[in-house]
Every structure is written in structure tokens, then in C-alpha cells.
Amino acid sequence: MAGADQLIPHLFRTEYSKITSVLCKLFGIEHVELAEDIASETFLAAMENWPYKGVPENPVAWLYTVAKNKARNHLKRDHLFATTIASQISHKPGREDFPEIDLSDRNIGDSQLQMLFALCHPSIPVDAQIGLSLRILCGFGIEEIATAFLTNKETINKRLFRGRERLRQEQVAIELPSAIEIEKRLDTVLTTLYLLFNEGYYSESQENVLREDLCFEAMRLTEMLLQNDRTNLPKVNALLALMCFHASRFEARRGTNGEWVLYNEQDETKWNQELIAKGVYLFRKASMGNELSTFHLEGGIAYWHTQKADTPEKWENILQLYNLLLQVRYSPVAALNRTFALSKARTKEEAIIEAEKLKLVDNHYYFTLLGELYQNIDSEKAISNFQKALSLAKTKMDRQIIEERIRKLTGS
Q1: Percent of the chain, pLDDT > 90?
Q2: For residue 4, what are the CA distances in angstroms to 18, 200, 208?
Q3: CA pseudo-torsion sign 176, 182, 188, 192
């Protein structure tokens, strides 16, 4: 079993949101901060006990017991609050004067799904919806959310505060909404899960190449949507297919020393064929409908990346999918990735012309791509672009890759 210093952060990521969701459903959305506080205090207790007394035989059960006890203690201390909560729940003969705290798998799943839609209420600005979901449901730290939004911690704290206040004012119910409301809120729910997966797949707030726990948590929450008939929709299947295709290459993305392995250098025998097959199955289900979402297009691009052979068909398909994606929703990152596909489907010269039009001078990927494209065409320009990329790179892994490219070109 992993030591407490490794296990607690992992369990915080997977269990904090479960405890918070159940308590918030019990207390009501207006007491979301109390639910968060009790969940946080539970993990603080683990940090204070486990390093000295040892990790319990069943760590999750230990956390749930402590969370229940802390919630009961709060209810006992605040009799008026406990009475208000109890009055909202039907009593059974012989039960205590405060409600049962149900941390069963079924109630956790129901609470998280209901909480996900509550946080994505249309009265709350979209950026606050996503921020609150990442914080409460996914256990993101403030710095991680700030990185995901490319902003600072102060801005995120203000955004979360205003979002919580709006939830209180609107008295949003924690329940699965009507079919019409699900349709209104689903895009934000899916965007939140997409952001969570991406933060794990490549995080600029961490030095790790890959944070699988984040990715698998995003996949678990997305799978939860598919288990409910009202949310088992084509674009949800498309999102999970996209995640499966990316997750299939996790092992190959990481080298023996933890370094990042670029796509062209990956060992395809390490690709997880079961996840690829699951992605294909989900992608077929995603095609049963009239909507073509960005998840369908990105899922198609990810599928073709599970085909290792460098065939003209592969890169032409990827190029055309990027063309469609940019028409549906333009983003500089997608435009940059399109130029790489263009270099593979057509020529590097054509791709350089298109890439330089983007002028993403604050983005180290932009200069890294130009450095790659100029190799074997103009070594001086390649080196110059790699040096600019190095000055902008945020993580140790990125800097190592760029430095290696410069060494190969300069022979030093």
C-alpha cells in the first residue's frame, strides 16, 4: 500500500468530491461551503493521523466514517440547523433527530450527477459554472483552476464566491432537472469534464508528464452520465470515446525515466487496445443522431492518432477534421495543430506559411512547431524558433524536450 504522503492526495482527488456532494445534497446548496469545510477537515484529520498511526486497512471507509462523525457533530452543535435539515426529510420511526448521512455507492453516484447539473444552472455565468464544478466536484485547487482558465488565483476566488452567492440566491435544487433543462446545461457539464481530462492529460500547473488520476476521474464522471437514460446522448458518448482514445496511449507517452515521449517516437505496442476498442464502440453510438459536436470532431482526430501508420489517408482525414473543427469553434491551439497535420498531409513549406500567419508569439508550442517544421529546411530558423520556445516554456519536461532539439541541431 502506498504511504500516507502519496495516498492522501490521490484519495483527496477521488473522495473529496463524493463527500462534498453527499453533504451538500443533505444540507442544501446554500450550505455548500459547510459541506466543503467538513470534507476538507476529514482529509486534514487523515494528514494528522496516518503518517504517525499508519494508513488504515480500509482508507476510504475511514474517511467516510470521519466525515459522517464530523457532520453529526456539527448537526448536534447547531440544533436549529439540524432541525431545519431534518424537517426537509421524511422521518422514519425510531430514527435520530438528525438525518442519516448516506455514503453508499448509489447515493454518491446520484448526488454527484445531481450536483453536476446544479452547479451548471443557467443563472450562473458559464466560467463560474465550470470553476465551481472543478472545485467542488473534482477537487481542483485554486491554482489548478486558474491555470485551466489562464488567469490568476484572485480572479478565480472572486468568481467562485460570486457563483456560490448566486446558487444561494436562486435556491438551486440539487436534483436531476427536466429533459429541457438537461439539454440547456449539458454542454457546460461536458466542457467541465473535458477540462478536467485535459488538465490530467497535460498540466501546466504541475511538473508531471501525466496525471492519470485526473483523467480517470473525468472518465468516471462521464461514464456516470451514460448510465442515466436521460443523459446517455450521442455527444456524451463522443466525449468518452475521445477520452478513451487519448487514454489508450498513456503508457506510451511516458518514458522509462518519466520523460514525455512525443507521438512520433511512441512504442505502439504499449497502446491499450481494449481502450481503443471501447472508444470505437462509443464512437459508433455517438454517430446515432443529427448533431455534430466538437467532441465528435476531436474524437475523430484522436481515433486517427491510434492508427500508427503514417499514411496519406490518415493525415488527410485529420486535416479535414481540423478544418471542420475550426469552422465550428475556432481556437488558436486547434489552428496550430492543424498546421502540423497540414505538414504531414501536404508539405512542410505549405505548413510554415499557414503557421506563421497565426502569430501566437506568447505560446511556446507555436515556436516549437515552427522549429520542427524548419528542420531540414533552414537550420538557423529552426534553432531561433526553438530558443524562443525555450524562453516561454513553463514546465521542466517542455524545456528538456526543446533543449534536446537545440542540441541535435547545434551539435553541442
Answers
A1: 57
A2: 20, 22, 19
A3: positive
- CB atoms under 10 Å from CB of 361, counted, come to 9
pLDDT (average), residues 280-284: 97
SS3 for 307?
Answer: coil
Mean of per-residue pLDDT scores for the chain: 88
Q: Are 205 and 310 in contact (CB under 8 A)?
A: no
Residues 6+ apart with CB under 8 A from 373: 339, 343, 348, 351, 352, 355
Going from N- to C-terminal start, the domains of the chain cover: 1-103, 106-132+139-230, 360-412
pLDDT of 374 reads 97
pTM here is 0.83
Q: How many Å apart are CA 192 and CA 205, to the nearest integer?
A: 17
Backbone angles phi, psi at 92, to 5 degrees: -115, 150
Cell 517542455 belongs to which residue?
398
Return the residue matching grid coordinates 448537526: 75
CB of 23 closer than 8 Å to CB of 113: no
- pLDDT score at 204: 62
Please tell me the distance from the alpha carbon of residue 64 to that of residue 74, in angstroms, as a whole number: 15
C-alpha gyration radius of the chain: 24
Nearest to 345 by CA among 380, 370, 321: 321
Handedness of CA 111, 117, 118, 119 (dihedral sign): positive
What SS3 state is found at 254?
A: strand
Which parts of 268-378 fold into alpha helices (H)? Answer: 273-286, 294-304, 312-328, 332-345, 348-358, 364-374
Q: What is the DSSP letter of 57?
A: S
Q: Work out the widest C-alpha separation in the chain, in whole angstroms.
A: 82
Q: Could you give the CA distance from residue 11 to residue 63 in angstroms, rounded to a whole number?
A: 9
Output the CA–CA distances (angstroms, integers) from residue 272 to 248, 251, 310, 328, 368, in the order listed. Answer: 5, 8, 19, 30, 28
